[in-house]
Write a structure and sequence with these properties.
With about 160 residues, the chain is an alpha+beta fold. Helices cover about 30% and strands about 30% of the residues. It has 4 helices and 6 strands; from the N terminus they run αββαβββαβα. The chain has helices at about 5-20, 60-65, 105-110, 125-145, and strands at about 35-40, 45-55, 70-75, 80, 90-95, 110-115. A 6-stranded antiparallel β-sheet has the order 1-2-6-5-4-3.
């Protein structure tokens, strides 16, 4: 399967599930995510680079207010966070209004991207966040977000 096939499948899943979503529905009951890219070291499968996209189980504001991990507000529509240990796990949330979905969807069930990197040994968080932002720009375009979120090429200067 090529990259375009993966994006088309992801877009179809987003459209199908989020157009049916209702504010009374628990987002945790939605299918979780689509793997877009993964690489594993053959000799040690725990060393991997893994990129996935899905929809968040919590509203956008939940992530903005987290205290147990770093939160980087990129703009009104984009947030970056990492795992509590600040290593190997990077996350992005985008307020993306799916065409044909209820208006509350972009706030209550934002697009969620996740990058796990235990393979490259990268220690500068700006590098994986840059990759995550690039993939988010591709997803925003593929999904046709009607609110037109602006996803920058680089993380904010506060990411160190």
């Amino acid at each position: 399967m090529g990259a375009d096939d993966g994006l088309n499948e992801a877009r179809s899943a987003y459209y199908r599930h989020l157009r049916e979503w209702k504010p009374t529905q628990d987002p945790g009951k939605l299918p979780r995510s689509a793997e877009l890219c993964s690489v594993k070291r053959e000799s040690d499968p725990s060393q991997l680079l893994y990129l996935s996209y899905g929809w968040s189980y919590a509203p956008f504001e939940h992530y903005r207010q987290q205290k147990d991990r770093p939160v980087f507000v990129v703009n009104d529509d984009v947030l970056l966070t990492s795992g509590p240990d600040r290593q190997a796990s990077y996350h992005l949330y985008v307020r993306c209004q799916i065409p044909g979905a209820l208006p509350q969807q972009k706030d209550e069930v934002p697009v969620s991207g996740s990058l796990t990197d235990t393979l490259t040994g990268e220690t500068d968080p700006r590098v994986p966040y840059t990759h995550l932002l690039h993939s988010a720009r591709v997803m925003v375009e593929a999904l046709g977000c009607t609110n037109k979120p602006v996803v920058p090429a680089q993380p904010p200067a506060s990411v160190r």
